[in-house]
Specification:
Blueprint lengths: L18 E5 L22 H17 L3 E5 L16 E3 L2 E3 L11 H11 L5 E2 L11 E3 L4 E5 L6 H10 L3 E5 L12 E5 L4 E4 L6 H10 L4 E2 L2 H5 L6 E2 L3 E5 L3 H9 L3 E5 L16 E2 L3
Parallel strand pairs: 1-2, 4-5, 7-8, 10-11, 13-14
Antiparallel strand pairs: 1-15, 3-4, 6-7, 9-10, 12-13
């Protein structure tokens, strides 16, 4: 092998222990449609959804992360998607305000969980804000999505309440209605992300290219199986089992893909990240 054929060594990636909040899908079903993935006419296997959620929960524990749980509530089938109900940075909690009335009640249950667990700096937004569904912390600044759910005004509110810089991004494909269906943070040291370009406006795409010139670029196939709804601890990346193309790219970058099956949860437009709120501080 010539020197020109030798690939540069990939630096060893170090995982960091995370703390997550999750909600079991005890009342999970698809009884209404608030995104293009939801079809109430298609049956949902609740037992399988619970088994898949449990496997995701156990995967985090096996990776060394701490997982807290909140009690699911009857009548709130989407409460399993914990990421939509809070953004926590340095112990400050910015709650949620949902666009869809069917999910509105979820926000206060999560607010109460934080208060009951010793968080005193909890602020509920005045603008529509679907939390980590549209807010992604990079370690240096907050990427904030808008276009379908979270209002643009929530971005400025997040900056004021959380005290971190915010970069706004516009989503344009209704299938990728939350930022966390089109982009996720791989690590917070560099930082770097993986994203699906076709989900963003032209201007937002230029911003992403400027901020992350070495980003992992996902294919349409990766996006359609919710591969961009992944969860990374800086080394281990939890992905849907179908996201094989994305996994191959990540492996080349020194990450370790960890596959989970989220087929039932995907019927409501959710994946690993949707089920996982990260508590920072």
């Amino acid at each position: 092998m010539t020197s020109a054929q030798v690939k540069p060594a990939v630096a060893a990636r170090m995982p960091t222990t995370r703390r997550y909040l999750m909600c079991a899908p005890e009342y999970f079903t698809v009884e209404y449609s608030i995104n293009p993935w939801m079809d109430p006419t298609k049956p949902v296997d609740k037992a399988l959804a619970l088994a898949q959620w449990t496997a995701l929960h156990d995967t985090y524990v096996e990776l060394g992360h701490k997982v807290e749980t909140i009690e699911p509530q009857p009548g709130l089938p989407d409460m399993v998607f914990a990421a939509n109900s809070g953004t926590v940075i340095d112990g400050r909690v910015l709650g949620a305000q949902f666009r869809a009335p069917q999910r509105a009640a979820e926000a206060d249950f999560y607010r109460r969980w934080f208060v009951e667990n010793g968080y005193h700096d909890v602020v509920m937004p005045t603008n529509i804000n679907e939390a980590e569904g549209d807010l992604a912390w990079t370690g240096r600044f907050l990427l904030a999505g808008t276009g379908f759910r979270t209002d643009p005004g929530a971005h400025a509110e997040a900056q004021e309440i959380l005290g971190v810089p915010v970069v706004s991004l516009r989503l344009t494909d209704p299938r990728y209605y939350h930022l966390d269906t089109a982009l996720f943070v791989l690590n917070e040291d560099e930082p770097n992300v993986a994203y699906y370009p076709a989900a963003f406006s032209a201007g937002s795409l230029r911003v992403l290219r400027r901020l992350f010139p070495d980003a992992v670029i996902a294919t349409a196939e990766d996006a359609e199986c919710f591969g961009l709804n992944g969860v990374s601890d800086g080394r281990n990346v939890v992905l849907p089992i179908e996201a094989t193309g994305l996994a191959a790219q990540l492996t080349e970058r020194g990450y370790e893909p960890v596959f989970v099956d989220i087929s039932e949860l995907r019927k409501a437009g959710g994946g690993p990240k949707c089920c996982t709120m990260e508590i920072r501080g």
